[in-house]
């Protein structure tokens, strides 16, 4: 039986791995579908302490991974399907049929980008014009007009990044003010290549004869008028859904799917199961706050493992 399994390898999981490995627990980390987590799709991380000139997300998470390995963390590429609890034993059922038993588990499975659910979105998703990651796909839209949907920090970051390639970035937002932080909002609103389209709700994505996106159709929330905006790329940045389906029924989830925690924010109702990062944080959702939760979850797990060792 494993002593400690960490599910997820974003900032939260990797920080938990560093702390647990340094405590001699030799944690096993299941990396999941997106090793490194959401940060790997971010170019410039400007607000992670310790990097006065910023750092790219891939480098930051790769450094954390190497740091965890240095102290004895082990990494495997597996994706959890279901968690079962039998007393002090936790059984992890993996996709593909493998089963792993552990005394303690830290869930750091993060969150996945939300989609609009409108006609055309799935048809053109991936290489044909609809995406959720400017860092990954922005360079394909050099010299073209693109749309970013959303009004939060992610949408602003995506829009600013896309100005490196696109001739025009249309920022489609359903209200007339951004919810993003003022530093990002100010940069977006001052940028000559970015044009906000306020009070617009996307209703359909249209493709051309070449099978790729040619326009987004939006409804004006004030007038009801339907407007077509020609574009070659559509970047959807409307928030995230926590990756918590494998834990439904075992751990209480809130209405939005975030794992509910006990008083200190990293313990759950199941003894020996801890959480860290965006899967349990509907409020802050920052790389540094996820890392902080990872640290706390590992320390709580270490304490709990020490407690059951004494009583056994
Ligand atoms: P968010 O703050 O939840 O913003 C989502 C945006 O999408 C909102 O403007 C929302 O509109 C809009 N939206 C939601 N559902 C929609 C729909 N169905 N149709 C059209 N628009 C829709 O998400 P986020 O921008 O991904 O940020 C998440 C968290 O990460 C935040 O805490 C943010 O501060 C943090 N973050 C920080 C940074 C940074 O500091 N550098 C970068 C990225 C993210 P309404 O405004 O009308 O609700």
Keywords:
FAD/NAD(P)-binding domain; alpha/beta; 5-stranded parallel sheet; elongated; 2 domains; binds NADP nicotinamide-adenine-dinucleotide phosphate; 312 residues; 7-stranded mixed sheet
List the helices and strands and how they pair.
Elements: E1 2-7, H1 11-22, E2 28-30, E3 44-45, E4 55-56, H2 57-70, E5 74-76, E6 80-86, E7 89-94, E8 99-107, E9 111-113, E10 130-131, H3 134-137, E11 145-149, H4 153-162, E12 168-172, H5 182-190, E13 194-197, E14 200-207, E15 213-220, E16 226-230, E17 233-236, E18 240-242, E19 273-275, H6 287-311
Parallel strand pairs: 1-2, 1-8, 2-5, 8-19, 10-17, 11-12, 11-17, 12-13
Antiparallel strand pairs: 3-4, 6-7, 7-8, 9-18, 14-15, 15-16
Helix pairs in contact: 1-2, 1-6, 4-5
Bound molecules: NADP nicotinamide-adenine-dinucleotide phosphate (NAP).
What does this structure look like?
This protein is an alpha/beta fold and 312 residues long. The protein has 2 domains: 2-112 and 240-311, FAD/NAD(P)-binding domain (3-Layer(bba) Sandwich), CATH 3.50.50; 130-236, FAD/NAD(P)-binding domain (3-Layer(bba) Sandwich). The chain has helices at residues 11-22, 57-70, 134-137, 153-162, 182-190, 287-311, and strands at residues 2-7, 28-30, 44-45, 55-56, 74-76, 80-86, 89-94, 99-107, 111-113, 130-131, 145-149, 168-172, 194-197, 200-207, 213-220, 226-230, 233-236, 240-242, 273-275. The strands form 5 sheets. Strands 1, 2, 5, 6, 7, 8 and 19 form a 7-stranded mixed sheet that branches. It has a 5-stranded parallel sheet with strand order 10-17-11-12-13. Strands 14-15-16 form a 3-stranded antiparallel sheet, with no helix packed on it. A hairpin with a 4-residue loop joins strand 7 (89-94) and strand 8 (99-107). Helix 1 (11-22) packs parallel to helix 2 and helix 4 (153-162) runs parallel beside helix 5. The longest helix is centred in the last third of the chain and has 25 residues, at 287-311. The protein is elongated. The two termini are 15 Å apart. The mean pLDDT is 94. The structure holds NADP nicotinamide-adenine-dinucleotide phosphate (NAP). NADP nicotinamide-adenine-dinucleotide phosphate (NAP) is lined by residues 47, 116, 149-155, 157, 174-175, 179, 237-240, 285.
């Amino acid at each position: 039986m494993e002593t400690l399994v960490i599910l997820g390898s974003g900032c939260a999981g990797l920080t938990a791995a560093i702390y647990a490995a340094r405590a001699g627990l030799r944690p096993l980390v299941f990396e999941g579908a997106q090793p490194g987590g959401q940060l790997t799709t971010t170019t410039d991380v400007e607000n992670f302490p310790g990097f006065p000139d910023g750092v790219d997300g891939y480098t930051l998470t790769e450094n954390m991974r190497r740091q965890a390995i240095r102290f004895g963390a082990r990494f495997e590429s597996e994706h959890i399907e279901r968690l079962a609890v039998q007393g002090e034993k936790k059984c992890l059922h993996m996709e593909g049929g493998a089963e792993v038993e552990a005394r303690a588990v830290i869930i750091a499975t993060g969150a996945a980008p939300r989609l609009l659910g409108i006609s055309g979105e799935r048809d053109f998703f991936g290489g044909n014009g609809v995406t959720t990651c400017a860092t990954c796909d922005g360079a394909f839209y050099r010299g073209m007009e693109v749309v970013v949907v959303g009004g939060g920090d992610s949408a602003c970051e995506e829009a600013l990044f896309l100005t490196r390639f696109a001739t025009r970035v249309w920022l489609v937002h359903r209200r007339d003010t951004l919810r993003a932080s003022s530093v990002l909002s100010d940069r977006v609103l001052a940028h000559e290549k970015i044009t906000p389209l306020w009070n617009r709700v996307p209703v359909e994505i249209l493709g051309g004869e070449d099978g790729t996106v040619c326009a987004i159709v939006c409804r004006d929330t004030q007038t009801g008028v339907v407007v077509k905006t020609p574009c070659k790329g559509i970047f959807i940045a409307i928030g995230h859904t926590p990756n918590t389906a494998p834990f439904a029924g075992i751990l209480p989830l809130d209405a939005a799917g975030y794992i509910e925690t006990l008083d200190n924010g990293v313990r759950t109702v199941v003894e020996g199961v801890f959480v860290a990062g965006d899967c349990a944080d509907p409020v802050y959702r920052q790389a540094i706050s996820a890392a902080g939760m990872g640290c706390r979850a590992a320390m709580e797990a270490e304490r709990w493992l020490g407690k059951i060792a004494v009583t056994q």
